[in-house]
Amino acid sequence: MEKLTHPQRRDAGMAYIADEAVNEEMLQCKKILQRLNFMDRFDLDGIRETVKELFGKSEDAFVNPPFYCDYGKHIEVGKNFFANYNCTLLDVAKIKIGDNCQMAPNVAIYTAGHPVHPMSRNSAYEYGKEVSIGDNVWLGGNTVVCPGVHIGSNVVIGAGSVVTKDIPDWSIAAGNPCKVIRKITDEDMRKLFREEEIDDEAWEDILQRMR
Known about the structure:
Elements: H1 6-11, E1 16-17, H2 20-37, H3 44-54, E2 57-59, E3 62-63, E4 67-69, E5 75-79, E6 82-83, E7 87-90, E8 95-97, E9 102-103, E10 108-110, E11 112-113, H4 118-121, E12 125-128, E13 131-133, E14 138-139, E15 144-145, E16 150-151, E17 156-157, E18 162-163, E19 171-174, E20 179-183, E21 191-193, E22 196-197, H5 200-210
Parallel strand pairs: 2-5, 3-6, 4-7, 5-8, 6-9, 7-10, 8-13, 9-14, 10-15, 13-16, 14-17, 15-18, 17-19
Antiparallel strand pairs: 1-12, 11-12, 19-20, 21-22
Helix pairs in contact: 2-3
């Protein structure tokens, strides 16, 4: 049986070493990131085009630079994706994100990991485990999503959370470690901030847009 290359081992979720072939892939990503992170901030169309070039799959995605990732091509986002300043997506394994997802500043999604025991860890072997996020998800500022986590659809993750385990659909979750606080219901539809409701003018506009 032919021996697997390290890129093949990485993509299979196995232990791998970031050898010359792996580093060459990351170098191609760094070249695109260099352009993206030093673009004229008024060139919104140029930023969108560069993000489209960077990601493995996207449709009208936008990020506010600076933005950081390892490969870019392992990131798949749906419609209307938005990432605010200083987000980091370590896409050693796939990062799959659904439609209408938003990331506040300083969000980090990590698929990369290292062995626990120092003997194994010092061997240079590492691994990646896929992260998936459903539709209509908002990740609050400074949220960290750890390797192998799956977040459902229609979820809000509170600022500063460290997500170590899966989060089900229609949940508000927060904390370190992140835990479900409660379910999102129709009673939340007009909520704006804490107990404050969306004003009548804006609410009428929202209803019109939903028709």
